[in-house]
Amino acid sequence: MTVATSQKLPLDWAIILYMATIHLVALLAFLPSNFSWGAVGVTLFLYWVTGALGITLGFHRLVTHRSFQAPKWLEYFLVFCGTLACQGGPIQWVGLHRIHHKYSDTQNDPHNSNLGFWWSHLGWMLHKIPADNDVPRYTQDIAEDPFYQFCQKYMILIQVALGLLLYVLGGWSFVIWGIFVRLVMVFHFTWFVNSATHKFGYQSHESDDHSKNCWWVAVLTFGEGWHNNHHAYQYSARHGLSWWEIDITWMTIQLLQFLGLATNVKLAPTEKTN
């Protein structure tokens, strides 16, 4: 992998335009004519679908770390939900996250927190980073799967289809809130795991990086804020290891396990929890 600092990396103008457009259109939600409680409800529901089921449960704990197994139909459903978060296709997302864990807080980490809060939160995405070229090496288990390839290739069209559905159901207010406001929410809440949890909070385990447990990020991301625990036990389906570390996603996995839909659930050593 080629090492490069943020100052030497070329800007990715397509991503910059993409991010700027989503954030600017989301500002239209402040117009009174675009507000409705129905639109807010749709936003919160889709935030749960894309953030909790898609990114946290699907992309992260199931696919990236294989902390549990699920029927293929359920895996595909969760991956589809994650694709709706528009954070890149599943192959790219999983590959970059696996690279992050291998090189956490070193020069080869795509969002190395040593380069500052802005870089780890958003800045790294606005550049053409060397890690992009290494994604195929870290995604050999999913790269040839036709469904993953479909989601990777047609992420934007899938989002457009969702937008059309929301327009039919509730007009422009549903589109602005359910697509653009929701995407901004899921974007930044997810990015806080890369930035805030490498800066704020406490460490309860040795992880050889700056990862920390941050309660407010855990609230926003359904348990992902217990990041030091996760970096210490990357394979664990449960991130909140102490009784006060509430982990909604772990509760969801327990429900799936009860229903027979989650098997081979991997956990941190019991003596490390309390």
Number of helices: 11
Helix percent band: 55-70%
User: Structurally, how many domains make up the residues?
Assistant: 1
Mean of residue pLDDT values: 95
Order of helices and strands: HHHHHHHHHHH
What overall geometry do the principal axes of the alpha carbons give? globular
Low-confidence stretches: none
Specify the structural class. mainly alpha
Biggest beta sheet attributes = none
Distance between the termini: 39 Å
CA gyration radius, whole angstroms: 18 Å
| Count of individual beta strands | 0
β-sheet strand percentage: under 5%
Defining traits:
mainly alpha; 274 residues; 11 helices; 0% strand
How would you describe what is shown here?
- The chain is mostly helical and 274 residues long.
- The protein has one domain (13-272).
- 55% of the residues lie in helices and 0% in strands.
- The protein has helices at 13-26, 37-64, 72-83, 90-102, 117-121, 131-138, 146-153, 155-194, 215-220, 227-232, 248-258.
- The N and C termini lie far apart (39 Å).
- The mean pLDDT is 95.
Write the layout of secondary structure elements.
Elements: H1 13-26, H2 37-64, H3 72-83, H4 90-102, H5 117-121, H6 131-138, H7 146-153, H8 155-194, H9 215-220, H10 227-232, H11 248-258
